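Notes from the 1:1 (GR / supervisor)

We went over the backlog. Supervisor wanted to see one worked example end to end before approving the batch request, so GR pasted a single chain during the call. The sequence is below; no edits were made to it. Supervisor asked that the structure be written out right there so they could see what the output format looks like.
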Amino acid sequence: MSSQGPEAVRRRSRATSGFFPFLRRLIDEARAKQDLTDALAGAGVNLTDATRQTAVQLRQIFAELLASAQKAGVVRADVDGEDVQAIVLAAVTGERHRADHTRPGRLGDLVLDGLRP
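Structure output shown during the call:
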């Protein structure tokens, strides 16, 4: 997640009607964040408390954005917040394993398309 904090992310995402842009950004930033997390963990930094707090904030953001997107009809009605988190994880994992530099973001977009009605 951006260093701007969850409220700034919420405002920006709402302003751009941003369910899919928000998820796309999470996926795009995940590799750099994972590299940083790995480096900090390798240096002995414990991220457990910060990670838990961020996870709670992300769940709240997902729920708000998902409800708005479903109300607008741009996301399937049978999807819940836990589904979204699992789908984002699948997209991040797929992007890492595929690493298609000629078509960046393609696999993430394919995974996210499963959320559309």
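Supervisor's comment: The helical segments are 6-15, 19-42, 48-72, 81-98, 106-112.
Batch request approved.
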